[in-house]
Automatic annotation (TrEMBL):
Belongs to the DNA photolyase class-2 family. The lineage of its organism: Eukaryota, Viridiplantae, Chlorophyta, core chlorophytes, Chlorophyceae. It comes from Gonium pectorale (Green alga). GO terms for biological process: photoreactive repair; UV protection. SUPFAM superfamilies: Cryptochrome/photolyase FAD-binding domain, Cryptochrome/photolyase, N-terminal domain. This is Deoxyribodipyrimidine photo-lyase. Its cofactor is FAD.
Amino acid sequence: MGTKRKAPEEPAAAEVETAGKKPALEAAAPGGLVNPKRVRVLKAGSVGKGPVVLWMSRDQRMNDNWALLHAIEAARGAAGGEAQVAVAFNLVPAFLGAGARQFGFMLRGLRQLQPRLEEKGIAFFMLKGDPAQTIPDLVTHLDAGLLVTDYSPLRLGRQWREQVCAAVRVPVHEVDAHNVVPVWAASDKREIGARTLRPKIHRHLPEFLREFPEVPSLPPWSHPVKPEPVEWEALLDEVLTRGSAVPEVDWCAPGEEAALAALTGPGGFLTASRLSLYDTKRNDPATPRALSNLSPYLHFGQLAPQRAALEAAKHRAKYKAAVESFLEELVVRRELSDNFCHYTPNYDSLDCAAEWAKESLNKHRVDKREFVYTREQLEAGRTHDELWNASQLEMVHRGKMHGFMRMYWAKKILEWTNGPEEAIEIAIYLNDRYELDGRDPSGYVGVMWSMAGIHDMGWTERPIFGKIRYMNYNGCKRKFDIKAYCAYVDRIVSEAKAKRRQQQQAGKPAAGAAAPAVGTGPSGSGSAAAAAAAKAEVKEEPEEEQEEAGSAGKAEGTVKPAAKKARVAKSPASGSKRKGDS
Ligand SMILES: Cc1cc2nc3c(=O)[nH]c(=O)nc-3n(C[C@H](O)[C@H](O)[C@H](O)COP(=O)(O)OP(=O)(O)OC[C@H]3O[C@@H](n4cnc5c(N)ncnc54)[C@H](O)[C@@H]3O)c2cc1C
């Protein structure tokens, strides 16, 4: 067995010194809007007199958008009072497993964005197809002077940007409009963990965590090439029908305005009754309102993380602990995910794990598994564990699993499948398919943290997990009211099913007719007998748990005493034993 270790000491949580002061505007070039350190030149050249095209991808908003501000600034630099800016959005037919839920949310947000841009004199082009072709075509068609794009560390986006750069004749600028501290300014390498990135982020906050300028108005779009009218209803119909297996959810209204309301509006995250819960209750899945629930907005760029940080910081004097915890998650942890994916192109493969983790997972890949589930069983929430089933169903039906449960959920997939590669593949498949915030660097890093020790350290060695941090049911039982969480998910499932029935009766096909078949019991475990069996088995789980420090990605904490060797005795109706077990 490995030795007990304490995690290294970490400095204090994020210090964002804006409370009570009017934040300064970002330090830009003289007379400019955007700090040049936010901008990377992907293709050099002087900016021509034609319109500037912003290829909008990850940051789908008008306000608080450094990429748009850079496009405006560059257009003004080249054409002065005649500056013309066009925003182009390319809709791809398929994106990393996204369904109606994600495409619907995105398109509804974009539909609101179009008139907001037009009011500022900015044209909106909706393109469809392969961006490697549509974007260069538009650039040529408009005789553009510059192409600006926002930044994402994910492989597909990088590949598209490379192809576009090769195809266009104009210069191309990339702007990190997503991170408070641009990923390349925060660090020039893959960081070991939050403890090494945190001081670097903090050092840069005075320079980057500043108020955004207002979006200037431009002269109306006068270019001879006008955007085609966007057939929003037809587009929505198309994506909702195509992705109907994963229906939309209605608790999270899409769009930039709704995003800001979710942050600062009545009932929003920054109201006293919610913010005051964040520090103490954010790891309690039975108290979901303690979370900000902002991740869908942040993922689709309908809300700038920097806006969320600036607004939260205003409450520091009254809710210091809550604000610091929130900023730690929002800025340090989230930007750690971008750092990882930026410097680790194989971010979703076991190959990217540290040697200690790979070695240890390899050593234990032959370990006997008490339960082995197929992807289909997991997807339907049919395991012996009511808590796991509830988290899976929360994701399937609400489109957002509680952050604490995501860690437990992923770790159990590692425990109940045939090996780490299969576990990673299944977790990413489910996460990207059902989470509204899926297909995000934080998703890939969350899975790799849970299963491959990324940004974590080695813990006491144990079966299957090796030195990867372990979590179990009994640890959850000590931390929160499992029954209350399962009852909450039950309500979500019943409501979703009732709504689907209503929609089917009304003849609306997009309402998720093909969501995975799930059990009807309180935990969705399939039958009363299976649920009863599951309960009996869960009680027998070992007491040991390597307590997580409260948030994915944290390496703090101590190791609890080694396990008494208690094993789950029976296989549930829905689980299958590993080959060779008897
Ligand atoms: C297995 C697993 C899968 C995950 N999948 C995703 C995913 O697909 N998309 C996604 O955005 N996040 C993912 N996370 C990270 C985290 O669980 C979510 O960001 C969080 O639950 C979102 O809910 P919230 O906005 O209410 O969180 P809050 O607690 O209110 O946090 C505010 C914001 O801080 C950031 N944040 C919080 N926790 C983390 C974290 N652990 N790592 C990085 N950033 C964090 C997010 O941007 C979040 O919106 C995953 C974590 C794990 C362990």
